[in-house]
Amino acid sequence: MPRVVAGLAIVLSPSLWLASTQAAARPLVRSPAVLVNQVLAAGRHTCVLLTSGRVRCWGIDRDQELGDGGEHASTRPHTVLRVANVSQVAVGWSHSCALTGAGAAFCWGSDTYGQLGNGRVESSSQAVAVVGLSGALKISAGGYTTCALLATRRVACWGDGQSGQLGNGTLAATSVPVMVKGVTGAFAISVGFADACAVTTSRMVYCWGDDTKGQLGSASGSSSSVAIPVPALSDVAQVTAGGSHTCALLRSGYVWCWGANSSGQLGDGTRQGSSVPVEVHGISGVLAVAAGENHSCALLRGGSIRCWGDGQFGQLGRGNTRVALAPVVVVRLGTVRSISAGGSHTCALLVHNVVKCWGYNFFGQLGDGATSSSVYPVNVIGL
What is the mean pLDDT of the chain? Predict the structure, then answer.
C-alpha cells in the first residue's frame, strides 16, 4: 500500500501526506485582499482554505476525500459541503478535516478505522462533526489517524491505532477521540502515516506510533503507544511527520530530520536511515518545513523553497525527476508564503494569491485542469 502524510501542510504554520497533513508553522494573517489562506497537499488530493472560511479540494475522490457530495475525481477545486467558518484544514491519505473558529472539528472521506471521529466507521462525502471534541486549537491528519491539539495543551487522537499512533497506551482503533499519554504543554502537532509528534512549550519534541524506520527519533527502534521524547533535540519551533520520516525546524532556522532515508528524504547527503536526528545539509534561515511521503521541503526567508528526497514524479520542482540527497532549489516559482508536501506532489501559496503545485498528477491533484505530472510548478486554476 502506498504511504505518505500529512499533512500537515505548513502554513507560515501537513498524512499520508500525508499525508499530513496534516502540511504548518506560522498562520497567515487574514486580509480581505487575500483569497487563499492555506494550501494542503495530501496523498492524492489537495485542499485550500479560503479567507471566507470555506474549503475547496481537488484530485482523487475514490474515498470521497473531496467532500463535495460525490465520488468523482476532479482536476479543479470543488467546495466541501457542510462546513464553514473554518480556521484550519488538515489532509491525510484519504480523508481530510477542518477546524472551526469555535474549536469544533469536522472530517470527510475514508473512515476505515474511524478517522472521521464521528463515532461510526462509515465514509462520508460530506463533512461530519467529530464527537466529544471541543476547544481544539489545531488539527492534523495522517495515514488513517487524526489528532487535535486542545486548549488544555493536551493532544487527542482517533482512527487507526495498530502501531500505537493514537498514543493512548493501546493498539486498538477508535472512532472517537482519546487522549495521548505522555505529552502535556503542546503547542504544535503533526501526524505521519502511522506515527505522530508534538512540540511542547519546553521546545522538546515527543513522538508516538510506528518506529520501524526510526521515525520516532528515540534511537530505540521500538514502536510506542505513548509519547516519548526525541532526546537529541531542543529549542524546536515546528515538527512535521511524513511517510516514514520526521523533520523538525529549530528556532535557529536549521532543520534536522530522522527516520527512513532510502530516497534521501533526510537531506544529509546520504541514503542511510537514522533513528536519531541528522542535520539537513546546506540550508539555514528556514521559516517552515514540510515532510511528504518520501521527500521534504523547506521555506526560506525571502520566500524561496528548497526540496530534497524522491523526485521521480517531479515533486522536487527542479525541472527533472532525479533524487536529491541534499536540498535543491524549486525553480519557476516566485515568492512563497506557505508550503505543503504530499504523497508525491508539493504545493505552495505565493504572494498575490497564487497557488502552485508540482509533481505527480495522475488524479488531478495539481489542480491545473490536467492529469499530466509536472517537474515545474503549475498554477492551480478555478480558485
Answer: 92
